[in-house]
Amino acid sequence: MTTAILTLLKIAVDGQAFESSKAESSPMAAMSEDEKGLKSLAHLILDNVDKVKVQEFIKKFLLEHPVVNSRWKAHALMQALFLTSDCAHQVKLVKILWQLWPYVPMAGSRAEHFVDILGYMTLNNEQLKANDVSWDFGV
């Protein structure tokens, strides 16, 4: 059930199912103009879902879930959210993830997927590269 839900969310966000190989291209590049409307779904999620709920979802599926395949699917979902968001929403997502950093030691090896996507998002946001963003995460 978990895998099915993550798969459906991923398809809803970027229009693509999970792939076994890791493609470097942006999901948005493969979309038609109509499919780019999916970008608004990422914005709706980040604007309207309570930050605590987003953090609980990320914590559960990237730091606590015992099944590696589910963590990879959650990782791909977070990457799709990031890639289909504008710069401001990307920063918001990065800040949400950084607020979960204190849970990494407790997650042990399960934190691999979380640390990977956090690093990817932090290093691949133009605003974070260009400016000294305030890192007040409320931790």
Shape: globular
SS-derived structural category: mainly alpha
Q: How many strands, what sense, and barrel or not for the largest sheet?
A: none
Return the average pLDDT rounded to an integer: 79
How would you spell out the order of helices and strands?
HHHHHHHH
- Alpha-carbon Rg, integer: 14 Å
List the total number of helices.
8
The proportion of strand residues reads under 5%
Determine the fraction of residues in helical runs and give it as a percent range.
Answer: 55-70%
Kindly, what is the distance between the CA atoms of the first and last residues, rounded to a whole number of angstroms?
32 Å
Low-confidence stretches: 20-24
Number of strands: 0
Please give a structural write-up.
With 139 residues, the protein is mostly helical. It is built from 8 helices and no strands. Helix 3 packs across helix 4 and helix 4 packs parallel to helix 7. The protein starts with a helix and ends in a 9-residue tail after the last helix. About 4% of the residues have low confidence.
Topology:
Blueprint lengths: L1 H13 L24 H10 L2 H14 L3 H16 L3 H13 L4 H4 L4 H12 L2 H5 L9
Helix pairs in contact: 1-4, 3-4, 4-7, 5-7
Q: What descriptive keywords fit this protein?
A:
139 residues; mainly alpha; 8 helices; 63% helix; 0% strand
Compact overview of the structure:
The protein has 139 residues and is mainly alpha-helical. Helices cover 63% and strands 0% of the residues. It has a domain at 38-130.
